[in-house]
Structures are given as C-alpha cells and as structure tokens.
Write a structure and sequence with these properties.
binds flavin mononucleotide; globular; alpha/beta; 42% helix; 13 helices; 13% strand
Length: 327
C-alpha cells in the first residue's frame, strides 16, 4: 500500500476499500470490481490467528484467491494477540501468493478488546510491540496495521506512537474514533490532525467518507495523507470511488440493479439455504437503502422478509421505484 497510485490515468492518491465483516466478503469484492472498481486495494475482513503450525484452508476461504479481484489488490487482515500465531498465518498467506497483510488493532467489540485483541492491543505496549515485531518478521516489507484513537479516550494511540514508529510498517490506517464510540458519533479530526505528522509510516485516513465532497474536504485539510479507506460509504454508494476519481457511471440504476442481482445470485450459489442468503442481503440493504426513495420503508420491509420470494418482491419493488424517480 505505497502512497503512489498504480492505475492508468488515476490521480495521485490511493483509495482502499475497508473491511466490513459479513459485507465486503469475497462475493461482494469480486462483483464490486466487475461492476464498479475505482479502489486500488481492499483490506479483507479479519481472519483470527490460531494456535498450531497448520492453518486450515477453510479459515482462509474468503481470501483463497489473491487474483480474483484484480486489478484491485487484496490485503488479508489478521486479528489476534499471540505473536507465535502470526508466522504460521503469514506462511499460509504467502503460500497463496500474498506479500501483504494487515493487523487489526481497531476492532471495538468488548468481547474482542477485553481479550487484548483488536483495539485491546493498544492497551499493552509490550504486547503490541511483540505483535508488530512478529508481523514485520513474518511479512517483511508488507505489513500494515489498522488502528483507532484509543479505547475509552482518544489519547492511547498518541501514547503508543513510539511503538508503532519502531517498525517499518507499509502504512497505518487510522479510524479516528475510540473503541467506546464503536462506529457512531463524530470522528475526531483534530486528534487525527495532531497525530498525522508524528507517524513514521504513511498514514491512511478512514472514517465517514460518504460523498465525493466529504473526500475533497478531508483531502484539502490533510494533504499529508497517503491513502483513503472507505467502508460504509462505498457499500451505500458503490460508485463512490469512481465519483471521487471524477469518472462517470453510465446507466447508474441499471448498473446498481445488475450488481445487486449478481450478489444475490452468487450468495444463493455459495451459501447453504435461504437464511444466510437473506442475512447477507439484509445487511447489504442496511447500507444501500439510503439511496432509494422511501429508503427506510424499503429497509423495514426487506428486514421483515422471512423468505427469498418475499425479499425478491420487496427488492424488485425498490428498484422499480428508483426507475420511476429517473435515478
Ligand atoms: C459491519 C462492520 C464490520 C466491520 N468489520 C471490520 C473488520 O473485519 N476489520 C476491520 O479492521 N474493521 C472492520 N470494520 C470497521 C471498518 O473497516 C471501518 O473502519 C469503519 O466502518 C469506519 O469506516 P467507514 O466510515 O468508511 O465505514 C467493520 C465495520 C462495520 C460497520
């Protein structure tokens, strides 16, 4: 994840698709590249590190094919706290062809953080140092981290700055919220601004980029940022990265519908039974609905659907309403 852009005709910033567990999974990413694109790389939702020398292939199913999303680079993400578990995972990833991996130091869920994983890694400087050391040794030249500002308050990342700066990280992705905030409330841009020049590694900003205007505003405030990671905004508006790059999306409604239908077809082919398919599609609509007229009503009906037939009826009606609005 170097700060340099790679694609032809692209501008001089990097765009990264954020990991959203249960949402930006392989089926989503593959279809995203097919219908939209615009991101240089994606960080995959986290995979837990495990004890032992062998990593079961099932654990890496979501990242089994590093080339499936080309030209968007895929970077697997680990979550864990035991440095001894990092090397076997890195080895399994290298065997698949990966040369990069990311460590989750930001997951805010209490049951994760309490055990010293995710954002909980920030609590203990020595534990953090050992994980960074293990990651850099296991994936030399290709190890990055994703962090938050802290757990209960916004000063812990600043305290750990020297630890991060001991290591040759490819980049540090900063989501400027505390774990306590989860994904709500304001991002703390002032705290981000004061941390930005202190990192030795290139910094990637992540949080609440929902429109091209949001991006432009943040970019002009933080010209020193090497890359921009977008999660929920890109699921709600899959054309967002293209908009940011000033590219047009021909026939937007039709493209969105084809993308949606391809996701649905692939989930049906890949998952067992209607319940997990419904689960995935409901989660997707949790973001997508905002672009639709009467989005909340659509979301309510879709979330109440108990069968695929019911879901199909409500989603088709939603796209018809979009057509009637000349979207
Ligand atoms: C449902 C959901 C799942 C997430 N899963 C992960 C994950 O697996 N790894 C990770 O580092 N962050 C994860 N995140 C955090 C996002 O990557 C991102 O940091 C956060 O959503 C803020 O960026 P955004 O405002 O652009 O969405 C998740 C967030 C949500 C809402």
């Amino acid at each position: 994840m170097s700060p340099k852009s790679t694609g032809p005709g692209l501008t001089d910033f990097r765009l990264l698709l954020a990991p959203l567990r249960g949402v930006t999974v392989a089926v989503f990413r593959r279809n995203f590249v097919r219908f939209y694109g615009g991101f240089d790389a994606a960080v995959a939702p986290f995979v837990p590190t495990v004890s032992g020398d062998r990593v079961r292939p099932a654990l890496l199913r979501d990242v089994a094919d590093p080339a499936a999303e080309a030209p968007m680079e895929l970077v697997p993400q680990l979550i864990g706290k035991d440095p001894a578990h990092v090397a076997p995972m890195a080895e399994a990833l290298r065997a698949l062809g990966y040369r990069r991996m990311n460590l989750n130091c930001g997951c805010p869920w209490k049951f994760v953080a309490k055990k010293g994983r995710g954002s909980g890694l920030l609590r203990d400087a020595d534990a953090l140092r050992r994980m960074l050391e293990a990651g850099c040794a296991a994936m030399p030249g290709g190890f990055s981290v994703k962090v938050r500002l802290g757990l209960d308050s916004a000063d812990l990342l600043a305290e750990r700055m020297d630890v991060f700066n001991e290591f040759p990280l490819v980049c540090v992705v900063v989501h400027p919220r505390t774990a306590k905030q989860m994904y709500e409330g304001e991002v703390d841009l002032d705290a981000f601004e004061s941390l930005l020049p202190r990192f030795r590694a290139p910094v990637v900003y992540n949080g609440d980029i929902r429109t091209a205007a949001d991006f432009r505003r943040l970019r002009s405030r933080f010209p020193g940022v090497a890359g921009w990671m977008i999660g929920r905004g890109a699921v709600a508006d899959p054309a967002l990265a293209l908009r940011i790059r000033g590219k047009s999306v021909p026939n937007e409604r039709e493209t969105l519908r084809r993308f949606h239908d391809a996701l649905y077809a692939d989930y049906r082919a890949e998952l067992f039974g209607p319940a997990p398919v419904l689960g995935r599609m409901k989660e997707l609509w949790g973001y997508l609905h905002a672009r639709f007229p009467d989005g909340r009503g659509i979301l309510r009906r879709i979330q109440r659907s108990t069968s695929l037939a019911e879901f199909e009826r409500h989603s088709a009606a939603a796209f018809e309403r979009l057509a009637s609005q000349n979207y």
